[in-house]
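FORM 7B: Structural annotation worksheet

SECTION A. Query
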Amino acid sequence: MGVGEQKALNMLSLARRAGDLLIGQDNIFDALRGGKRLAVFAAEDCSANVLRKLRSAGERGELEIFILKNTDRALMGKHLGIGCAQAAALPRESGFAEKIISLMNEDRSDADE
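SECTION B. Predicted structure
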């Protein structure tokens, strides 16, 4: 797991404690039906069915998807204090989302060098 993904999981944990994080596909799709724009963070082993639905919503401009490399459902769940989780989301304009996206982009640009 890259440093960016580790920091991203830590930030997701903080967002959960702050009450800002949506965990699980049902909560994510309910928020989308309510008109929210989201940043969705998915485990690398997220189910194909859930990813297909998320990508479809992404094509409609409702969300952005970020796959956490080398992070499976169990690891994501552990960081969030639950058994397992394949996806979690934050409002796109939230400070937590901006920071996590920045960390992940920073890690990817370091890997390219």
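SECTION C. Observations
Helices lie at 3-18, 25-33, 48-59, 73-80, 95-112. The longest strand covers residues 38-43.

SECTION D. Sign-off
Analyst initials: ____
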